[in-house]
Write a structure and sequence with these properties.
By secondary structure, the chain is of the alpha+beta class. The protein is built from 5 helices and 6 strands. The chain has a 3-stranded antiparallel β-sheet.
Length: 201
């Protein structure tokens, strides 16, 4: 279990590394200023070091955010996937059934749940029970979620390769995996997709 002390030390280490990286860049810059042999090369290397350090700092911040996220209490959620063993009628919405998962309990639970669905990580046991999915698709991603006061959840996706296009049967299965997963939350009364060209036969 990740404790508060671990978070503290992770933050402390990240700050220390940031200072070391920054001081290293400053020292390099000072040395490069005094050298007149090849100023263009020195400037190029300096810029490379700055870019490298920025990436390291970004990665450290991401790791700290993950540690903080994992500290949050977990809540159970359902991910709805197509189960071919339960499909008595071809492409039945009734065959889109839940599997159980857990996510951190935070204000982004709807977004986190949809993103987890899109990862498409079914267990071996779930696959043997007939669950299947076309998720994940690398180019298909959730861009934003917006829940209005009437309970309409608007999900905006990026789909540059037209992954959600196809026959009526396939589109119905794809769309309803997302709709059913979103509708498990009592505050969600309806689900809409953006752009409107998504999930069209």
């Amino acid at each position: 279990m990740i404790t508060r002390s671990k978070i503290f030390w992770a933050i402390a280490v990240s700050i220390l590394l940031t200072l070391l990286i920054s001081s290293g860049i400053f020292a390099f810059w000072q040395n490069s200023k005094t050298s007149t042999k090849d100023e263009s090369t020195s400037e190029k290397i300096l810029l490379q070091e700055i870019v490298k350090s920025q990436k390291q700092i970004k990665d450290l911040k991401k790791e700290i955010e993950e540690i903080k996220k994992n500290q949050l209490p977990k809540i159970p959620v359902k991910l709805f996937y197509y189960n071919i063993e339960s499909d008595e009628d071809l492409c039945s919405k009734e065959a889109i059934l839940p599997v159980e998962r857990e996510i951190p309990d935070n204000e982004n639970k709807i977004t986190d749940t949809i993103n987890l669905l899109l990862e498409g990580k079914l267990t071996t046991a779930e696959k043997s029970e007939g669950f299947q999915t076309e998720f994940p698709q690398p180019d298909f991603r959730l861009v934003s979620t917006n829940l209005d006061e009437k309970g309409t959840l608007t999900l905006e996706f990026d789909d540059p390769e037209n992954f959600t296009s196809g026959g009526s049967c396939r589109v119905t299965i794809l769309a309803n995996q997302i709709i059913k997963t979103a509708r498990q939350f009592p505050e969600v009364k309806a689900v809409e997709f953006k752009p409107e060209t998504l999930f069209q036969p």
